[in-house]
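Can anyone check this?
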Amino acid sequence: MKKITITLGLLFSVIPAYCCTTCNKNLQTAIFDSTFYPNLITMLLAFMVLAAIVIILTFLNSKREKQKYHNHEYLKLTAIPLISAATTLGIGIGGFIDGTVLHQILQWHEMLSNKIPPVTLLNKSVNMFWDGIFHFFCLIVTTTGMFLLARLFFRKDVIVTWKNFYSGLLLGWGLFNIVEGIIDHQILKLHNVREVADNIPIWNYGFLAVSVIFIIVSMILFKTGTPNYLYDPHGDT
């Protein structure tokens, strides 16, 4: 009888601490308070900046190609659509890698772990909610990248090489890390790469340094993976 009483006591003591966004009033209050929309906007900010960067880079490179070949009777085979699609996909995959490895597996940080230290079950659950929102945005970006890649199947003027594809992926991953690192780590201070560390800044700067290497490698791959030739849309290459 004593064992049964203790077991029932432990069971019912756990129930009030169970957290889910549809059943726990304390968690709902902690998430949907006055900071909800500011948090949502700040989380969107990095993705909006990344979208602007991809659009601007695509526009400038397309304009440069048109100026270079505008007097030529042939059309230019271009790698820009593939690079843009792969870069978009790389941004989404880079976000998923960040969220899966650093947020969930290693649990070095969470989206708002510098503002809301995950030292209690409630705080941990609030951070988990915002991690889910972050992953949802990553899913949108990844789906967009896949859609852009699918459109290339219907184009005959696009240079398709594995080096260009990998170049775009690394460029997107590097851009994601740099933009997210500068905005979320340095400016908004939503979280750090590793919240519990002897030297937190060195982890943040190391994160940016590795990202720069990704971009440098992507540029090398692009230079070696893009042949420069023209084709006649009515005849031979």
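Reply from J.R.: I decoded it. Helices lie at 2-14, 25-31, 36-69, 80-105, 121-151, 162-187, 200-225.
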